[in-house]
Amino acid sequence: MKIIELEETDSTNDYCKQLKDDCNVAVVAKLQKRGKGTKGRSFVSDDGGLYISFLRRFENFPAENAFEIMINYCVAVCKTLESFGVKPQIRWANDVLVNGKKICGTLIENTFKDNCITRSIVGIGINVNNVLPEELKDIATTLCEQTEKNIATEEVRDRLIKFAEESYSVEDYKSYIDYFGREVILKTPQGETRAIALDVEPDGRLAVIDGNGVLKKISSAEVGLRL
Ligand code: BTN
């Protein structure tokens, strides 16, 4: 895999979009000036964190299997964090928490043609040694805080790249979830509702029992989760 290292950029995901010929690249930046989060939000990307985007191209990769891409990178992040001695948990669909606080977010931007994914840009931001803004300190954490060690972002990058080359299953993904059978809060554009989380389907939808006792399978595009 080719690795492109940048001092800074607006967003490593956007940098990948202007790479025309490369097909297996990781773009890493020391900081991002306009880091992007999911659902149109921004992602704080100060010096000391790992900001990396993987650019992949596919032939005949069915769009309905998009979740497989996400599973692979989420599990790779968890294995990377475990290798530093912390215990990660996936907050469906693709946040990774340690001790209840977010340590990593993932933004996947896919390009489609004829119901197939032709290009996938998987952008991963891991808090390593970056100093979190005051307003995030209650909900986010860093690898440095969790291990009480200063860990080089390059070491995290190298381990992540290595783990991302392996293949993982939905069962591997679910092994990082401990809230099945428990109450969670679903955050929808209409507001928040309580539900019991049951399972993650092979297509990535979260199966829940809603407040009326009805089984629902929800997609992460519509709904976020609070544990
Ligand atoms: C989220 O938690 O909302 C997703 C955050 C994704 C952040 C990463 S950092 C590398 C890549 N470049 C971006 O602009 N975003 C992703």
Helix content: 10-25%
What is the molecular shape? globular
Spans of 5+ residues with little confidence (pLDDT < 50)?
A: none
- How large is the share of residues in beta strands? 35-45%
Rg, nearest Å: 17 Å
Mean pLDDT: 96
Measured distance between first and last alpha carbons: 36 Å
Counting H and I runs of at least 4 residues, what is the number of helices? Answer: 5
The structure class reads alpha+beta
Biggest sheet architecture: 7 strands, mixed
Q: Order of helices and strands, N to C?
A: EHEEHEEEEHHHEEEEE
Ligand species = biotin
Characterise the protein shown here.
With 227 residues, the protein is an alpha+beta fold. The protein has five helices and twelve strands. Strands 1-2-3-7-6-5-4 form a seven-stranded mixed sheet. The chain has a five-stranded antiparallel sheet with strand order 11-10-9-8-12, with no helix packed on it. β5 (95-98) and β6 form a beta hairpin. The model has no long low-confidence stretch (mean pLDDT 96). It binds biotin.
Please outline the helices and strands.
Elements (H helix, E strand, L loop, with lengths): L1 E8 L2 H6 L6 E9 L17 E13 L3 H17 L5 E4 L3 E4 L2 E13 L2 E11 L16 H5 L5 H12 L5 H5 L8 E6 L2 E10 L5 E5 L4 E4 L5 E3 L1
Helix pairs in contact: 2-4
The site of biotin has 21 residues, from helix 1, strand 3, strand 6 and strand 7.
Outline of this structure?
The chain has helices at residues 12-17, 66-82, 143-147, 153-164, 170-174; strands spanning 2-9, 24-32, 50-62, 88-91, 95-98, 101-113, 116-126, 183-188, 191-200, 206-210, 215-218, 224-226. By secondary structure, the protein is α+β, with helices and mostly antiparallel strands.
